[in-house]
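Regression test case RT-17, inverse folding.

Input:
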């Protein structure tokens, strides 16, 4: 008798949850990629002092931009 009073169960619940999960995870991945691109473009380092000759124990730039 209680089965007759219960509303029919919707089969749309799990596909809807799956679609929402994919959308949310996709938005997180896209947002992270946008953040990485902005950080890479916005963090151009200034010229730093480095060894100009090949001799010595310190590292030097392969091709100096300064």
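Golden output:
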């Amino acid at each position: 008798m209680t089965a007759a009073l219960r509303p029919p169960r919707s089969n749309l619940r799990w596909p809807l949850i799956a679609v929402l999960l994919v959308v949310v995870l996709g938005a997180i991945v896209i947002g992270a990629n946008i953040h990485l691109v902005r950080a890479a473009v916005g963090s151009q380092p200034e010229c730093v002092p480095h060894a100009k000759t090949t001799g010595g124990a310190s590292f030097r730039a392969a091709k100096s931009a300064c």
